[in-house]
Amino acid sequence: MHHVILGAGPAGVIAAETLRKAAPADTITLVGGEAEAPYSRMAIPYLIAGNVAESGTHLRHGSDHFKQLRIDQIQAKAMRIEPADHRVVLDNGQTLTYDRLLIATGSNPVRLSVPGGDSEGVFNCWTLADARAIMERVQPGVRVVQTGAGFIGAIIMESLRLRGAKMTMVAKGDRMVPRMMGEVAGGMILDWCRAQGVEVITESVFERIQPAQAGQPMKVHLSNGQAIEADVIISSTGVRPSIAFLDGSGVATKSGVLTDSRMRTNVDGIFAAGDCAEAFDKASGKPVVSAIQPNAADQARVAALNMAGQPAELKSVPTLNVLDTMGLISASFGHWQGVPAEQGGAHADLTDQTGLRHLNLQFQDDVLIGANAINWTEHVGVLRGLIDGKVKLGAWKDRLQDDPTQLMPAYLACAQALGQWNGAGDERRR
Fold it and tell me: What is the CATH number assigned to the segment(s) 327-420?
């Protein structure tokens, strides 16, 4: 049996290692598109900040790690797949045949599509090559203008600030991390960033970039009419699953590659995992793209076991983000946006602007479905347990609406009682 894995990021590496344990005699080929040892993109901001060396970004250490596991490596990118013939055509001219194929190609950054967006000094902070170029240019006092104030953008911003950059962030919306935080929580992060010396311009976007010339720096022209001088420009406006090579293959895609709970696609013998996968979430009953490394790892293990003929299912696709923004800890769980009242939606809020603490709980009927938290780290595990468990709170829902700090008593009273539950049909659990 020949297993071909497209993508050498966390999902690809974990899948290859899992396959080797589950199928000791099978052939495994790991295809990666970069001339680098497999590494974690999550570690790149820590490299830029100087917290880790480049080797600290590597997923595995030891030059012969994959050789010892008898995992063949190829540096190339997939151009197309031909499922009828069980073939993958690579951009290096090779054609691979497979018995089982895993698509773990991750994501690509959204390109800055404005005039001047390809100017010298404009970067996506996405690859090790990007990181090396950015570190060479960004020294104390260098003026950095960054577009994008989402989760990834906030992490990159802090890493550049730690290098001594003079930071300006341009946000399309009215707050920081709008896909993770509601108005109050996102506004608190925005105020905190400004208090730490980061200039944040909201409700504006890049219109064009004037390239550097004749000893003059680049100039960013914004939709609000401002023009900002920049020595370095960073684009961090999000990512998209890297699945363009699947066009015409017959593999079903939406936002990402559609899979079932066993990470199987609609095409026999083809699986998907990681940031490129739109995995079926049994908890919500919907396919979900959740581009965080823990999810990639879980999906990779499930996919690999099924590729080896050992049935396994993905229990859920947790939507959990925790962000440290210059010491301000924020967290987002589940369906934090909530649902309308006519669908059983309700919420509870507790905000201490002076103490920089905020807690928002979202309910559907008597089940906690999502939450936002600022500097409320003591309840992270409890929040996840209640949300992922879809625990029926009963009368505790009203108590939490009156006092959201009663999460632990609610958990002990409701979730812990599930130790005596009678299976999936237990009335105390949905």
Answer: 3.30.390.30
